[in-house]
Amino acid sequence: MTEHAWRLRGGVAVAAAGALLAAGCAPGDGGAPGGGDLQGVQLKVAAKWTGVEQDNFVEVLSAFEEETGATVEYEPTGEDTGAYLGPKIEAGEPPDVALLPQPGLLEEYAAQDALVPLSGDAAAALEENYTDYWSDLGSVDGEPYGILLKAAHKSIVWYRPEAFDAAGVQPPQTWDDMVGTTASTLSDAGETPFAMCGASGWTLTDWFENVYLSQAGPDKYDQLTAHEIPWTDDSVVDALETMAEVWGEGDYMAGGTDGAVQTDFPTCVTQVYGQQDAAMVYEADFVAASAAEAGATVGDTAQAFPFPAVGDAAPVVVGGDIAVAMSENEGTQELLAYLASPEAQTTWAGLGGYLSANSQVQPDAYTDEFTQQLSQTVLDAGEDVRYDMSDQVPSQFGATEGRGMWAVLQDFLRDPGDPEATAQELEDAAQEAY
Amino acid sequence: MSDDAATTAPAGAGPDPLAGPDGAEGAPRRSAAARAAARLGSGAVQLLLVLIALFWLVPTLGLFVSSLRAPADNASSGWWTVLARPAELTLENYAGLLDNPTFVGSFWNTVLITVPSTLLIVAIAALAGYAFAWMEFPGRDWLFLGVVGLLVVPIQVALVPIAQLYGGAGIYGSIVGVVLFHVGFGLPFAIFLLRNFFAAIPRDLLEAARMDGGRELTIFRRVILPLGGPAIASLTIFQFLWVWNDLLVALVFADAANQPMTKALQAEMRQFGANIDVISSGAFISMVVPLVVFFAFQRYFVQGVMAGAVK
Amino acid sequence: MAHTPQPPDADGGAGTVPGPADPGPPGPDGTRTDEQEPGRAGALGPPSWLALAFLLPALLFLGAYMLYPIGFSVYRSLWDAPGTTFVGIDNYIRMFTNPPTFVALRNNVVWVVVAPIVVTVAGLIFAVLTERIRWATAFKLVVFMPMAVSFLASGVIFRLVYEQDPERGLANAVITTVQDTVAPAGDYPDASPRDGSGVEPADGGGFRLGAEVTPGDEPAMVPLVGIAADDLPGAAEPARAPEAPAGDAVAGTVWLDFTPGGGGTEGAVDPEERGLPGVGVRLVDADGATAATTETADDGTFAFEGVAGGAYTVELDPRDFSEPYAGVTWLGPTVVTPAIIGAYLWVWAGFAMVLIAAGLSAIPRDALEAARVDGATEWQVFRRVTVPLLSPVLMVVFVTLMIYVLKIFDLVFVIAPGSVQADANVLAVEMWRVAFGANDQGLGSALAVFLLVLVVPAMVFQIRRFRRENS
């Protein structure tokens, strides 16, 4: 997960969406659970957030500090959380709480005995506030370790209304509409339908996950994630064939096939909202920040529609950062319990740039309409929401530049001619990694 | 420009390796026809060399101009279009960098890493170089051959072991760790260079000093260091630039709070197209110090690099 | 360097760094020229323990940062990723069977074979050419400058140069400018036929009407789409269907069959649709010969008068639809390694040039003159005299470059975009990725050890050269 850059951006992301009402929500004055007197206790929390995202998180932490008397120090991990934590674990001095961008890492660390299972109030908070899917996601062998703290909604297609108006098209409801009507009409009107972010491999895995989740269904999605069915399964080939309806059309992608593979995120967003070279770009809620930077007004000149249904139901894929305990120090579990609470997350939601996966956090906690809608889709999808697959599989397969899914899907974007061969390559890479 | 640079270099540094013998005058006498042909050929050679020089200069110029353009301009047109519209140049990118605590912090980290590493390397290597050159002890020649052998050891070999070592010592991610690593890997070359230079100091001077009853440390300070000035200068500049420009060591051993500019900029490269404003101005700032050092002390630097052949 | 032949006239005295760096600077023939015995401290010399004290800090560092790591890496490379299971040489086997690592290995071979030669040759050429010009120092300064800046900065510089879009990347801007002068792009590169209109693509990128026309027929309508309304030439006027042509005439319209904002009837000229001016139209007879040519007017209409009877095909000139040349995909999977080698040349040519130039100036003029007097051409002198005399220097340059090329990291890491990192991979990058990205320190250590083994020949070369010069 590399979507956040140093001078973040991501922070204002979602908050920028829609009418930015004054973020007047008072920080949670309700008593957070956890309690206990932690006077003098020092805790370290590490996450990759910087800039506004960091400020907001620190503010959420400060409520915990006030309440318990503990001191919480925040450490930015830089882009590569694995590279940051790996040696610290080896050295035996990890932070007390870390935010892992991938459940894949969670499993690796749990296998290395580098994590401390959730206990007491923290385990209870996970149980109470999250659906079973999220509890399972943060568990290894039935032992709960992680809490999805900050979610990113990954089933959104962003578009430029002006381009849609010029071509006389509406946001599509289904994949077939999107490809058959929306894209082809845009193309006839001389508008390139899509900007692709092919140089950033994770955006391609996100495409796949949405198509696959909607087409093959949540059960298959889970089986494939666990590698219980091989990547050569027909469902994978079908999904690839579906994707090729867009990826195979050089004219549908800004800069043609070559351009699609060479464009990184968020340059692709700039292509839509800055240079106006394309009409749509698929990526997550955090596109809002890049769109705003490219000069668009989110909610007005930059709008989004839900990723259209390929099969029966539209997919809801969520990514995000998972909080885990890495030490047995006093206060660690209390801090996690606090972070998992609806109070802390409601505070955070009021600060903006935040989406919760907590079932107890109501849509009205968010200050803008757009995030409220996103939150509603997550709540509505309930147990059918799925976490980003590429972040659940071993990172070598799902989240490494030049490796596994990233590399194979980039090759597929370059030449989507042979979905079966691509499925085989994915399977080979998976074999190597699992 | 180069002449200025040459004259600003302290005297006594020896001939400038960049300034070869003046070929035009050194050319052998030939017949009139041959001279005419030579002149024509020389015209072609001059033109070719001008083109080559442009090939070396223009890319750097491109970076500099890009760093002076607003992100939107860079996204929509090439830097060379400013030739037609010089008005669009702006210092905004640089202003933005100065407001960016991560970048400013990384600049100071670079300084905090580079200066101590360089000083430590020079100090430790000077002592060792002197011992290898002018002190007698068993196994000296073999030990020195060992140092020569270590010159080419790839840094990769040490990454994993030292990362674990640092973990145990609690200095993983810290500036101290990065500095010590640079010292460790800079030493073989530094010792090699200084030992060879010290060994060439006239023996009489040393004998005389020892005859006068000078203690080794005094001799080292009074005789070796002053005479070794040029070599020490070369080494200092070479190491300074080497550490300043390092990416790999920082990538592995410096965490986000202690990262130098190279690592901070590298992180931005992942979104090259979108971050070109930060990247171009940041890269240029990271180049300024090396370029100033290079042009001010170029002869020392070139000599240091030449001494580094087969490292 | 320390071991470059010194110019005979250069003062080898205490002033020069390269000079004194040699214990008794060797002459061009490699023999010692002074009788000094460095290091023979004599009776007055200090005791061994003092020497040890001087050496101690250095030895501690070398032990901790080089000797211990070498040992530990070898040991670690025999264990699995978390370091809990002994796996013998498994990691080494994986190194050669794991596809990404294998790509890295293959690329390293390309690098080692190509880059040192290219750079040495460039350095030699520059060194020889600059011998004859007055501004040699300035030239050398310029070419040497990249050695002073970081590979990261050089990488950024070349990312800019290699940018795909000819509007922004210098390399492609130059190439496409040349190309466009030779074969300019058409006005309507994005055009495509309206589906179901009977217009089909023709050879060479033009379009043709599928149905044949005969003089006096209904107008030949050619609806095209895919052109943004903003991209139409300013002269374009609302399209119009021509009057029914006379008996010996063929007429028609080429227009943008898309009503802004949607709506309109496909294949019919709607009020807001505009014609495509200036499109070349050809009337091709049954034998495939061109009977007549014309161009569309501002409203998209065209007409051929006085056409002989028979069936014709209406074709649009491919030149009006040709795509602009997009340039080379420098950072695509196929040429990314050569492209990065180009950047490498840019960085290192100065190094090779300076060393070789120092060697050149040490060649005795007499030898060259003697050859010339014997009637040798300049090329022969260069081949038979200069290069052989230079060969020790060339060897040093070449070996040095080879060592650095084996360990190349920054340039590849920085220049190759994410999507081609796999194609540009080299061992040093792979080692970092495996050990610190995938946290497989077993395989990472094996790769490090492998790199070490690769530089051992250079180590031997280095030690032998040193001993020869000091014996």
Describe this entry's structure for a reader:
The complex is a heterotrimer of chains A (434), B (311) and C (471). Chain A has 434 residues and is an alpha/beta fold. Chain A has two domains: 10-153 and 323-380, D-Maltodextrin-Binding Protein, domain 2, CATH 3.40.190.10; 166-315 and 393-433, 3-Layer(aba) Sandwich (D-Maltodextrin-Binding Protein, domain 2). Helices cover 46% and strands 12% of the residues of chain A. In chain A, the strands form three sheets. In chain A, strands 1, 2, 3, 6, 11 and 12 form a six-stranded mixed beta sheet that branches. Chain A has a four-stranded mixed beta sheet with strand order 8-9-7-10. In chain A, a hairpin with a 2-residue loop joins strand 4 (139-140) and strand 5 (143-144). In chain A, helix 9 (201-225) crosses helix 18 and helix 18 packs antiparallel against helix 19 (419-433). Chain A is globular and about 65 Å long. The model of chain A is unreliable at 1-35 (pLDDT under 50). Chain B has two domains: 31-90, no CATH class; 99-307, MetI-like (MetI-like fold). Helices cover 73% and strands 0% of the residues of chain B. Chain B has 16 helices and no strands. Chain B has helices at residues 2-8, 23-26, 32-67, 71-76, 92-98, 101-134, 140-150, 156-169, 175-199, 203-211, 216-227, 229-244, 248-253, 261-269, 276-296, 298-307. The two termini of chain B are 30 Å apart. Chain C has 471 residues and is α+β, with helices and mostly antiparallel strands. Chain C has 14 helices and nine strands. Chain C has helices spanning 18-21, 48-76, 90-97, 99-130, 136-144, 151-161, 170-182, 336-361, 365-373, 378-406, 410-415, 421-424, 427-437, 441-470; strands at residues 192-193, 199-201, 207-209, 220-225, 250-256, 280-285, 290-295, 301-304, 312-316. In chain C, the strands form two sheets. In chain C, strands 2-3-9-6-7 form a five-stranded antiparallel beta sheet, with no helix packed on it. In chain C, strand 2 and strand 3 form a beta hairpin. In chain C, helix 2 (48-76) packs antiparallel against helix 14 and helix 3 packs across helix 14 (441-470). The longest helix of chain C is centred in the N-terminal third of the chain and has 32 residues, at 99-130. Chain C is elongated, with a radius of gyration of 35 Å. Mean pLDDT of chain C is 85; it is low at 1-43. Classes of the chains: A alpha/beta (434), B mainly alpha (311), C alpha+beta (471). Chains in contact: A-B, A-C, B-C. Chains B and C meet through helix 1, helix 2, helix 3, helix 4 and helix 6 of B and helix 1, helix 2, helix 4, helix 5 and helix 6 of C. Chain A: Belongs to the bacterial solute-binding protein 1 family. Chain A: Pfam families: SBP_bac_1. Chain A: InterPro entries: Bact_solute-bd_prot1, SBP. Chain A: This is ABC transporter substrate-binding protein. Chain A: Keywords: Transport. Chain B: Keywords: Cell membrane, Membrane, Transmembrane, Transmembrane helix, Transport.
